[in-house]
């Protein structure tokens, strides 16, 4: 529980600071390979979009509820490995962090635009309705910026950026949790059950 709260607090602090201090698409160069680049998206992690915004938000609510219930069931077991609970909690916290953006940012902030830094405008006075807010992303790591050689098939001569997605702390929490599950807890994944034992 403490881990979930800590991830949510860090995630929301970063997002609210970026949203209320930077214009949309503004970028702060930290190093050649790391930028704080403010964007917003309607979709899933790393800016992906699938289907309607409302359905995605409702799916998130159901998935977070199911995962929370599953974590609660696992925490009651005496033989559970706590690393497994930690990984699941990281995924839950990351998903909840992005859901908070969708639930409340549209209600509480005016729209971020190029040339305008968003401000808190009070609950119900924002740019969108409940569950329809946009997710704030800001971490950009263009580790390799180059051009494909002219002889390269299909995209020769075009620009290439290795790792171009812009993401947030919640996305990274989900990603680290999923990768750790796949590396260290495959046995537990294969035995997933929502029944009390």
Task: Note down, in words, how this protein is organized.
One of its GO terms (molecular function) is aspartic-type endopeptidase activity. It is found in: Cell membrane. Its EC number is 3.4.23.36. Keywords: Aspartyl protease, Cell membrane, Hydrolase, Membrane, Protease, Transmembrane, Transmembrane helix. This protein specifically catalyzes the removal of signal peptides from prolipoproteins. The chain is of the alpha+beta class. It has one domain (2-190). It contains 5 helices and 6 strands, in the order αββααββββαα. The strands form 2 sheets. A 4-stranded antiparallel beta sheet has the order 1-2-3-6. A two-stranded antiparallel ribbon has the order 4-5. A hairpin with a 2-residue loop joins strand 1 (27-31) and strand 2. Helix 2 runs antiparallel to helix 3 (82-108) and helix 3 (82-108) runs antiparallel to helix 4. The radius of gyration is 19 Å and the shape is globular. 24% of the residues are buried. The model has no long low-confidence stretch (mean pLDDT 90).
Question: Concise description?
Answer:
Its EC number is 3.4.23.36. The chain is an alpha+beta fold. It has one domain.
Give the integer mean of the pLDDT values: 90
- Estimate the global geometry from the Cα principal axes: globular
> What Rg, in angstroms, do the CA atoms define?
19 Å
Order of helices and strands: HEEHHEEEEHH
Which sheet architecture does the biggest sheet show?
4 strands, antiparallel
End-to-end CA span: 22 Å
């Amino acid at each position: 529980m403490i881990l979930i709260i800590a991830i949510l607090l860090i995630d929301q602090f970063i997002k609210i600071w970026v949203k209320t201090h930077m214009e949309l698409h503004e970028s702060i160069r930290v190093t050649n390979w790391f930028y704080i680049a403010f964007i917003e998206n309607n979709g899933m992690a790393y800016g992906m979009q699938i289907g309607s915004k409302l359905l995605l938000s409702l799916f998130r609510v159901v998935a977070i509820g199911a995962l929370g219930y599953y974590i609660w069931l696992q925490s009651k077991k005496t033989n559970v490995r706590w690393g497994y609970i930690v990984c699941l909690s990281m995924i839950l916290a990351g998903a909840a962090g992005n859901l908070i953006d969708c639930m409340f940012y549209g209600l509480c902030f005016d729209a971020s635009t190029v040339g305008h830094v968003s401000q808190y405008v009070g609950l119900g006075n924002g740019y969108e309705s409940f569950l329809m807010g946009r997710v704030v992303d800001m971490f950009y790591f263009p580790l390799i910026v180059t051009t494909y050689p002219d002889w390269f098939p299909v995209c020769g001569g075009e620009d290439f950026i290795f790792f171009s997605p812009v993401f947030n702390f919640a996305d990274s929490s989900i990603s680290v949790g999923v990768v750790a599950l796949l590396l260290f807890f495959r046995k537990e994944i294969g035995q997933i059950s929502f029944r009390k034992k």
